[in-house]
Amino acid sequence: MGLQTTKEMFAKAYEGGYAIGAFNFNNMEVVQSIARTAAEEKAPFILQASASAIKFAGMAYVIALAKAVEAENPDAVFALHLDHGEDFEICKACVDAGFTSVMFDGSKYPLEENIRRTKEVVDYAHAHGAVVEGELGRLAGVEDDVNVSAEDAMYTDPAEAERFVKETGVDSLAIAIGTSHGAFKFKGEARLRLDILEEVARRLPGFPIVLHGASSVPGYLIDQINAYGGQMDGAKGVPAELLRKAASMAVCKINIDSDIRMAMTAAVRKSFVESPANFDPRKYMGPARDEIRNVVIDKLRNALGASGKA
Description:
49% of the residues lie in helices and 16% in strands. It is α/β, with parallel strands linked by helices.
């Protein structure tokens, strides 16, 4: 129990036909909401920080927040993960600091170079008790330091995925099957290439697959943000039923970031408009924390199927 790698978590998720929620965080209130809600739901979870989140909060604070989760709830089943590490140095720094899992994103490189760079991270992480997520294929959209145009996006080739896993020794693999970063994922009907996922699973039986860019972008949050001065017209995410289907197959980890940001933004905007005289951060961060809780509950129950699995 407590802070651990994703190895056993993913093995159980694969066997049980559910996925672990990997929730991005930047501050204390987000961590509190994720961890306390997961505890209520008796669900395993992953706290993940991007390089820009670490820069914003500070490595020491990121580690301390994870330790605080463990101190508050020793029975929590969770991992601390680096999201989208762009080079060996940031992956090494996170492993050295106490992250139990890191992602090296070499998807921008040709296959041979991606394999070489990923294996370098794998060798170091495994020698220090951490696990590694790799990525093959490119998701469109914008998230922190990741910015890929629709023209540069590409689906994952299942044959390359098989080779990549075997030659790098990664513990999980993020693939591109139609999700995208940010809150504006689809212009028309939402579709995922589940046929690609099925073929990857056939070639890599029992191997945990990861979906990035998988926030659902709830309509009620869009409406609330817009009603209180925001501008999110046209935002569209991945329906929960598609995520649940993927989780019932080989997907063991689903990343959720935009929905968390939207929940916080919606609550804070509402508070500022309805209580303009308030200047106590607790009075607007408290409702924001509650709104994030609602999102996390919905994800754990309806998209991931992870409630009760800790």
